[in-house]
Specification:
Elements (H helix, E strand, L loop, with lengths): L1 E2 L3 E3 L5 E3 L7 E2 L10 E4 L2 E4 L4 E2 L1 E6 L13 E6 L13 H4 L1 H4 L7 E2 L2 H10 L4 E4 L8 H13 L3 E6 L5 H8 L4 E5 L5 H8 L4 H12 L3 E8 L7 H14 L5 E5 L14 H13 L5 E4 L9 E2 L6 E6 L2 E5 L1 E2 L2 E2 L12
Parallel strand pairs: 9-11, 11-12, 12-13, 13-14, 14-15, 15-16
Antiparallel strand pairs: 1-6, 2-3, 3-4, 5-6, 7-10, 8-9, 17-18, 18-19, 20-21
Length: 337
């Protein structure tokens, strides 16, 4: 076990966890909602420090990040656990592992040095903390991220955006990019489907951007739950208000876990969502999970020229030159080089 960060002693042996916006009050011998932080003798411990269940070399586009080192590879790691309980989680076997296995914590012992070494040896430009909500293994992620920066690697979070403001400020010094899910634009959806709230997520999109972290946003469109034109327009308006240059990924849902009663997202819904995003003034809107249709390409917001041609997570051609459109010279938002 590794002593946790961001907690305070409470009354009668309790500890108050300040890692995420659930602000769990954890009694002696109990764990937080994430299932991987436990109170022992009035101290909070991470049960997953260095215990990785997933290590893969992924294209950065898989995160998805389309305007952060496009075409590069990212060393992707995860432990078990999550602070959300999404009914449609595609990685539920690891995100809900402690809850599904009577509190058991799986994983292979690793160190920050071994993770960074492997990232470099496999030719990766970054390390991605992903697959589950990486905030729940923050202590290990932060240790890896500090070392990664020392060795000229970038750091990426793929996140539900539920960390506390204190954690966001602390993380921003070592984080280069983040993809945050805005899963819907109603508290009702977040409470029923994710067991969480919307506002902390919106606050973190704004705060991460203000702190200089490159932000991209993803919304998985679930038929009948979060895909109405009205709700999509509200999401687009919010992103535009933060920065119209933030890319918005609107992705197709496929039935999984406890949400097998819904159909997959129709292609037309993605088309409508992309159109709405562009109508509301967003510069970059991408259609995800249905490759080969053009909605995954990057276009210049000024002249409309196709700049990056993609098929799924693969880049066919990149026509951006020195971070600018090769035709009109407009600066393209992101970390393109």
């Amino acid at each position: 076990m590794h002593e946790a960060m961001f907690y305070q002693a409470g009354k009668d042996g309790e500890v108050n966890c300040g890692l995420c916006s659930h602000y769990c009050r954890i009694k002696e011998g109990k764990r937080g909602l994430c299932g991987v932080r436990e109170n022992h003798g009035g101290k909070l411990y991470s049960l997953v420090y260095g215990r990785l269940v997933a290590e893969h070399v992924d294209p950065i586009e898989k995160k998805p990040l389309f305007q952060f080192l496009p075409g590069s590879r990212s060393y992707s790691i995860s432990t078990v656990g999550c602070n959300f309980k999404c009914l449609h989680c595609q990685n539920y076997d690891i995100s809900q592992y402690p809850h599904l296995h009577e509190g058991s914590i799986g994983g292979k012992e690793r160190t920050p040095v071994s993770v960074v070494d492997d990232a470099i040896q496999t030719g990766c430009a970054s390390i991605s903390y992903t697959y589950v909500e990486p905030t729940i293994f923050y202590e290990f992620a932060h240790a890896c991220a500090k070392l990664a920066h020392e060795r000229q690697l970038k750091n990426v979070f793929v996140s539900n955006g539920y960390m506390t403001p204190e954690v966001t400020h602390h993380l921003s010094s070592v984080l280069d990019a983040i993809n945050i899910d805005i899963k819907a634009f109603t508290d009702d959806f977040y409470r029923k489907v994710c067991k969480a709230r919307l506002q902390p997520v919106l606050d973190n999109v704004r705060l991460m951007h203000e702190l200089g972290v490159w932000v991209e946003v993803t919304t998985l469109l679930i038929p009948g739950l979060n895909d109405s034109p009205e709700e999509l327009r509200e999401i687009a308006k919010f992103i535009k208000d933060v920065d119209p240059g933030i890319p918005w990924h609107v992705s197709a849902f496929h039935p999984t876990y406890k949400m097998l009663d819904r159909n997959s997202t129709p292609v037309e819904t993605l088309n409508i969502a992309r159109k709405i995003g562009l109508e509301e003034g967003l510069h970059y809107v991408y259609e995800g999970n249905i490759p080969g249709r053009g909605g995954e390409n990057t276009y210049c917001p000024s002249c409309g020229k196709e700049l990056i041609s993609r098929y799924g997570f693969s880049i066919r051609e990149n026509r951006i030159s020195d971070g600018c459109c090769g035709d009109c010279g407009r600066k393209i938002e992101g970390i393109i080089g």
